[in-house]
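S1.2 Input.
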Amino acid sequence: MVGEHEVTAELRRVVEELRATTATRNEWSMLNSLPAGARPERIGSDLPDRYREFLAVCDGGTCGDVTVFDAATVGSMQFYADRVDGAEISLGREEWFCPGVVSDEPIFVNRSTGAVWYFPDTGIEWWKSAAFERAADDFTTFFLAWVAGLHYMRLTGSRPEEQWPDLLSVLGRLGDERPAEVLAPG
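S1.3 Output.
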């Protein structure tokens, strides 16, 4: 079993690797951002633990189609967790926390379990969707596997030639779950 210290070290390592690689191409540096971590006093004590950990390493970020809210903004973005009349999935700020979005679709952390959930693209507005899926046990795992890893294209519907999947591919972070056309010799 991987300990909490190892997970934090892995998060720091991957964020540093992403920052360094992003700086190597103009397109990557213009469209993505992984700022320095927030000072402890800027990180709210009522935030989910693994999201707080992320903010200490990286105060929000833009990674292709994924935006992780920074410490100053996240509180004002919790309207995503408000109950919506007529919604297929009933949310609520007491149980759900919104740390960011995929394009305009919010992602959520269950406050009691720490698990990250999202609305997969079904062609309709997220709040009208009955599809609500668990992506990861915690925010750090979500970031490493779904934002900076092999599930990114599944999460966003991006194509391999788009800039963030291209960056992840250069780093070898897309693994073998890339679509067949990406793995075919070229």
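S1.4 Remarks. The CA atoms of residues 134 and 155 lie 11 Å apart.
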